[in-house]
Amino acid sequence: MGNILFAKWAGDGKTADDAFKLLNLNPKADDFLKSPALRSWVSYAKMLEEDPYKLLLATLSARYTDEGLVRMLVMAKQDPKTRIIASTLEEAQFNRWLSQGENAESIFKLFNLDKEGNKLFESPMFRAWESFVKKLDKTNPDKMMLSVL
Description:
Largest sheet: none
Shape: elongated
Organism: Phytophthora fragariae
Structural class: mainly alpha
Strand content: under 5%
Distance between the termini: 49 Å
Helix content: 55-70%
Number of strands: 0
Protein name: RXLR phytopathogen effector protein WY-domain domain-containing protein
Radius of gyration: 17 Å
């Protein structure tokens, strides 16, 4: 997929959402984040000077719960082929939560970490929560984590 097609789409006034549909991207597909078409769409959105990750997060958020989305991203971060895009989307999700005023305890509960018991520290969701807390409190995240635990 190249610049010629992107130039045609842009000339035809195709939005990033239009391109998403034209590329037959399906956010429910298991291999969605591995799709070469997704990388093409990201390039097209950037060409339009739009934030593809913010747009993609909105698309995924419409189809998944917050917990389901983060669970998918945590799993995708374990695959070298999807690690970068999953990390970028997770970062965008954390920024969205910060702008909405979410706190360490609410995200802990959202991730159902309060139900993990003895396996809490083994959970990949715990690592995602830990990353969120470090973003929330850059100076003393350990103190914040302990206050929730």
